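pinging the channel bc i need a second pair of eyes. not urgent but kinda urgent?? the chain im working w is below, pasted from the shared doc
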Amino acid sequence: MTMERLDAFMARANAAYYATHDPFADFTTSPEISQVFGEILGLWAAVTWQLLGSPVPVMLVEAGPGRGTLMADALRAVAQAMPAFRTALRVHLIETSPRLRAEQATRVPDAVWHDDLSEVPVGPMILLANEFLDALPIRQFVWQTDRWLERYVADGLFSERPSTVGLSPPAGVKTGGPIVREINEPAEAVVRALVDRFGRHPGAALFLDYGPEHSGFGDSLQALAGGKPADPLGPAGSADLTAHVDFATLAEVARGGRASVHGPVPQGMFLAALGLFQRSNRLARNLPPARAAATMEAARRLGEPDRMGRLFKALAIGSASCPPLPGFGP
């Protein structure tokens, strides 16, 4: 019987899944829902560039760029609205899947690809990451009477072993099931690496993903296969595995490194502040009725609280001297 820690299993499973599947057959991300999503994130990056002092050159980086749709929409909007930023930026994409790199190249042919953040050249940088952190592997710990046990995977089932990680007891926590604590070490490492970069060069990073605003307990591991929920512990590579992002912990990590922190705020509030509905309405005016209705429906799907607007959050971190960023305040 082969036994591996949950984060090792999740990393192996997702690597196999993205190497052999078209993930967009199983789920639809925000850039694929509406072109306005990528356009306003591009304009967010342009304004952020100005707030950082308009450094030239500047790297515009996307982590987990999917089909390249977000970056293509962002670059098109930037070229029209702020050509100086388009001239100054250099596109870098963080992607490990050869299949997805090939598709991204059809939409963003002037990009430079990297396997991880450490390969991106040093210098001023603005990073966009939509639904990137949720796919990074988590560890799970279960409280058992008077101690934490860590979850391992063996033959499609959980197996628990005594934890060697010093976690505090879950005082006062009441749940209807086992008390589960999740830790995403790779996500924390990404934030620490960005904080280190932003301490040496002007920069900012924007994360949009799903998860609660405050840290808590619970098992959020889930899987999608064929567009439907699946067994997360099924054969590795048969489904896309994700987990909720602990935004509060990531914000705490950034503050601990003396970076500026903006948010987290609900995605709906963030996108509305950037003009999601106004931009979508302007587009709809020039479209046939059916396409106009679809355009406004896409905006509601992204922004309304009972859809993606509340579950998804926006969090930005930046250089210590970075002023308030668009979408995060009055």
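so The chain has a mean pLDDT of 94. and DSSP finds twelve helices and 15 strands in the chain. — does that match what u expected or am i reading it wrong
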